[in-house]
Amino acid sequence: MSAPRPNKRIVLAGNPNVGKSVIFSRLTGVQVIASNYPGTTVGFARGYLTIPSDLEVRPGAPFAPGERVEIVDAPGVYSLAPCCPADQVARDLIAGADYTVCVVDSTNLERNLNLVLQILETGVPTVVALNMWDETAHRGVKIDPALLERRLHVPVVPVVGVTGEGIRKLVERLDEAAPSGLPPLPGPERWRRIGEIVGECQELVHHHHTFLQLLSDFSVKPWTGLPLAAGVIFFAFVLVRLIGEFLVAGDIVIFRQPLLQLPFGTTFLFETAWVPLMGKLSILLGGGGFLHDLLIGALADGKIDLMQSFGLLTTGLYIPLGVVLPYILAFYLVLGFLEDFGYLPRLAVLLDWLMHRLGLHGYAIIPNLLALGCNVPAILATRVLESRRERFIAATLVSIAVPCAALQAMVIGVLGPRGGRYVLLVYLALFCVWLVTGFILSRTVKGYSPELIIEIPHYRLPPLGPYWKKIVSRLRGFLQEGIPVILLGVAAVNILDYLGFFSAVSVLAAPVVEKALGLPREVSTVLVVGFLRKDMALGLLAPMGLTTRELVVACSVLAMFFPCLATFAVLLRELGWRDLLKATGVMLAVSLTAGTALNFLLGL
Predict the structure, then answer these.
(1) Which fold has domain 9-204?
(2) Residue 138 Cα distances to 205, 211, 329, 338, 432, angstroms
(3) pLDDT in tens, 52-109
């Protein structure tokens, strides 16, 4: 029997980076639904809260014990005056709410009160949650919640979202939520009132900087922040590689020295449990024929090769589950920590000067970093950018020049045995293409790029519960969107190969592939496969016997060539047909131009 539909909606509102999502997670647990506001690409989260059955409520209270209510986590905004789609969505959600919980950063009371007063002026019954209450003592901030409550005419509850302190009290006081009765005030009058409230309710005392506060200062100053950023990014990718390799192969290798080797990992699991089962199915299917090749793939010396057999049940499952998923998990573990710790906004500020030269602002670094895990969530993450011009440039750059975790793993696996300097050469080529293409697009794509106005949160160790739930949610999104497309791609490749499509493409593309790129015509087939799955296509380069120069050019061109089908599908959804065709033209021109230039330079 399904749960009854809630008849009350509570909207969590507040400035960006005040801990709304942590409190949302505390209130709703795992009952989270991600949605886009109708007619926009602005996302928000919905969940459900069941009022505790042992909660004592006053007679006539609006909430009853055991009642199920809807909780909405609205986009973080600084004002209800709509300056961008996120502001308008937040305003609409608050206007349609039955109750509002306004989440406030207790250490920045004055700035947060501007939005609080605007929400109270709407007349929506409200409770104010003073989040990060534990930080006030560390920062020498003393707030009188009772006096603040009397000045705002609504309940005020100190909470600590990361530990759950005060959350039950917040739920208990929901039934006291009521319109404040405060009249609307013009801008100068509102700030005068904010000054009066802060002067009465808050006191600042001397305190010594903590280690995290000193680290925060170092993180945003260019002379110390840029070297720190380089170190953080380098260490992050080393950690991703070590975790990914361990999950795939059960070993940890540093400077080519094995430090740990265990009979563990996805490869071990597939080879010991899945391959024997598929071997029996291969025998039942007669060891050949169309159905056998579709499900099992081609046999190498009578055996199944998980990387190259290219069957639906062999390569089609091994690539996403055995190779891609471990690296994506590793990447999200590291990225999620940096995100929740509070480092990514600082990185955005540091790199804002560079991103603006590419027609973007600093927060565009977030989709680019996400793309190093998987292009699909990276394209979706371009929604954080305010203008259509920014979203087009960011999505195009991600698709061309930012290799996903699976692609990186294959570049290292295919080209690494030839020498680490050749792997670095591919990365250098991609970085140069990222810079040059972005510079050109910033001067040719019409539109505007707004300035970077973000709140830098305090450094805090992320709470394990919400941190892990976010990781699981991202992995679930990859599995739901990635595996069906990969299986469809493998099936399409087998069918097209059976019909002789790739042979025809090789003939047509031979002049460009052979003369401009300096590659054997067979590589054209690999480029077509790359449209379906780049990492799989790179694996097909290994048995071709290419020279090191040819392999560097092929890996670089394939990395810049059309993204996988899953990314194309998301690009279509986010950009529309017209901009997708434009982005496709840019991809084709950039990959062929860069490949030709690289072939020429390596041949000198």
Answers:
(1) Rossmann fold (3.40.50)
(2) 10, 11, 34, 22, 44
(3) 776 776 776 777 888 888 999 888 888 888 777 778 888 889 988 999 999 999 988 9
